[in-house]
Amino acid sequence: MKNAIPVQNPDLHTEVWDIIEDEVVIKKDIKDQLIKIAMDFFLTLDVDNIFDTITLTGSMANFNYSEYSDFDVHILMDLSKINDDQELVKQLMMSKKSLWNEKHNIKIKNHDVEMYVQGTDEVHYSTGVYDLIKDEWIAEPAYQAVDIDKTAIIDKVVEIKSRIDSVMQSPNRLKEIDKLKEKIRNMRQCGLETGGEYSIENLAFKTLRNLGEITKLYATATSDYDEMMSIDEQEVKLVKEYISEALKHHGIKLRSR
């Protein structure tokens, strides 16, 4: 488990960042490719208004990257220009984002590329944000020695993993998973708001994600829902036979299609 806990590195990712005239800038080939991918994603949003800019954020724009880190690319837009109901627009953008990320498996330097739509007024808790269009930092991360309490992180991970394991055995699993997903989201949000990126809650969430526990939770919820909403072909056949026999009893013949 310890290998899955995010760490703080002494430098930004050397395969992603260059130092030119004492300025830290993203490598041109990576920047150009991320912009191209973001533009392709933007076209799938099917909106009339133009975006404000495209940013790279998260651990790949900071010192806490690992082998599990993604290129988190955000398209910043004024969502109020799409529709007055911003909550509805956010949900639509989240759906578009999920569809894109599930459909594509794009990697750069062995790291996944993840797309996201961010409202221009949305609070974003990251100390590393790079503007890919302007090719400059919006928030440049500064290295600071951080004492990561791995014991506390492991304790939190074990606690949540135990809940995940318990939920998996629940007879009302789908409903319980939805509750746990919300609890985990709230836990991480609270950690980001109070302690930032290196809070125990945020690092515990990232560790669970690195271990595959978050993916397992979401995948199980999806498969359970699909199974619940599906119709077993054998059951359909038996129902049809029962109806056919009942109608025959009353002298009614089914028309073949």
Describe the protein.
This protein is an alpha+beta fold. It folds into 2 domains: 138 residues; 80 residues, no CATH class. 48% of the residues lie in helices and 15% in strands. The chain has a 6-stranded mixed β-sheet with strand order 5-6-4-3-7-8. It has a two-stranded antiparallel sheet with strand order 1-2. The longest helix has 23 residues.
Salient structural properties:
alpha+beta; six-stranded mixed sheet
Protein topology:
Elements lengths: L16 E4 L2 E4 L1 H18 L7 E5 L13 E7 L8 H18 L3 E2 L2 E9 L9 E3 L4 E4 L10 H19 L4 H23 L4 H11 L2 H17 L3 H17 L8
Parallel strand pairs: 4-6
Antiparallel strand pairs: 1-2, 3-4, 3-7, 5-6, 7-8
Helix pairs in contact: 3-4, 3-5, 4-5, 4-6
In short:
The chain has 257 residues and is α+β, with helices and mostly antiparallel strands. It is 48% helix and 15% strand. It has helices at residues 28-45, 86-103, 150-168, 173-195, 200-210, 213-229, 233-249; strands at 17-20, 23-26, 53-57, 71-77, 107-108, 111-119, 129-131, 136-139.
Mean pLDDT metric: 88
Uncertain segments: none
Beta-strand fraction estimate: 5-15%
Q: Give the tally of structural domains.
A: 2
Individual helix count? 7
| Largest pleated sheet | 6 strands, mixed
Helix content: 40-55%
How many DSSP E strands? Answer: 8
CA-atom Rg in angstroms:
24 Å
Provide the spatial order of strands within the biggest beta sheet.
Answer: 5-6-4-3-7-8
Q: Which structural category fits the helices and strands?
A: alpha+beta
Element order, helices and strands?
Answer: EEHEEHEEEEHHHHH
The N- to C-terminal Cα distance equals: 58 Å
